[in-house]
Amino acid sequence: MASAELWLTLAIALVAGLIRGITGFGGAMVMTPPLSLLIGPKYAVLTALLLEVSAAANMLPGALRQMRVRTIGPICVMACVTVPLGTYLLVILDPELTRRWIAGMVIAFSALMMVGFRYRGNPRLLMSAALGALSGVLAGATSIGAPPIILYLLASQDPVALTRAHLIVYVTVVSSMGLGMLWVTGILDLQSGIRALAAAPFFIVGTLGGSRLFERVNESQFRKFTLMLLMAVSSVILMV
Fold first, then answer.
1. Which of 128, 165, 182, 237 could form an S-S bond across to 74 if both were Cys, CB 3.0 to 4.6 Å?
2. pLDDT band for position 193 (cuts 50, 70, 90)
3. Residue 26 and residue 142 in contact, taking contact as beta carbons nearer than 8 Å
4. Is the pLDDT of residue 1 over 60?
5. Residues 6+ apart with CB under 8 A from 212
6. pLDDT tens-digit map of 4-41
7. What is the b/e burial string over 111-140, where b = at least 16 CB atoms within 10 angstroms of the residue's CB?
8. Rounded mean pLDDT of the chain?
9. How many Cβ atoms are within 10 Å of 92's Cβ, its own excluded?
10. Which domain covers residue 94, as residue numbers?
């Protein structure tokens, strides 16, 4: 990777981690659109999945103790089933089309979160399986599979800590499955893995810093600002 691209990648990872630490939602939405423009969709997805796993893995043991298998289990199982389809789309689709698809998805999900949209029914097995399948395709193709699950889980009466545990389990399991498929297809090799992992310390430091800043900022206003920023950046990426 050229020096300028490397430093920009590290800066994007740091900002993504910082925003994730403050707002709590996935860093993939923040980093994948600009990285897809900078280094291409395939390596942007690879980098985002690796960083999500690196940030969530240390929280996984606690999340596993808290989670309810009947809630998150069907989602993770169906997502893992359909991740290969998403990875196949990532491999065969034109990079320009994929880049615009990623940007368009970020705009759509940011708009839904901005207006406070969430699933209004009671969580059911069929709906969990269907959304898990959809999120698996999205995660494999774009690294952005969590937003539909976030909007769905927010409809439950579960405590915030339990919902957070479910999301940690989901992100770790599905991102790991996505990385496995990228390895099978040859996108993840030693060189690309080392290159992506170079950004991990910056992402983790950003996440830790954002978590400490959480109590010092107005989380609701910052979330709205972040969503507006994501929509603006992704709109530019969609048009270039």
1. 128
2. confident
3. no
4. no
5. 21
6. 888 999 999 999 988 888 776 678 888 999 999 999 99
7. ebbeeeeebeeebeeebbbbbbbbbbbbbb
8. 87
9. 8
10. 3-239
User: The whole model's pTM is what?
Assistant: 0.86
Return d(Cα 34, Cα 40) in angstroms, integer: 9
| Residue that is written with structure tokens 């740091």 in the block | 14
Q: Residue 63: enclosing H or E segment and its boundaries?
A: helix 60-66
Q: Please state, in angstroms and rounded to a whole number, the distance separating the CA atoms of residues 171 and 184.
A: 20
In angstroms, the CA 38 to CA 107 distance is 19
Q: How far is CA 220 from the centre of its chain?
A: 20
User: How far are the Cα atoms of 18, 129, 161, 165, 213 from residue 135, in angstroms, in the given order?
Assistant: 24, 10, 22, 17, 30
Is-contact 17 202, C-beta < 8 A? yes
CB contact at 8 A, 104 and 138 = no
- pLDDT above 70 as % of the chain: 95
Q: 176: closest CA among 78, 56, 61?
A: 56
Q: How far is CA 46 from CA 31, 35, 87, 178, in A?
A: 11, 10, 10, 8
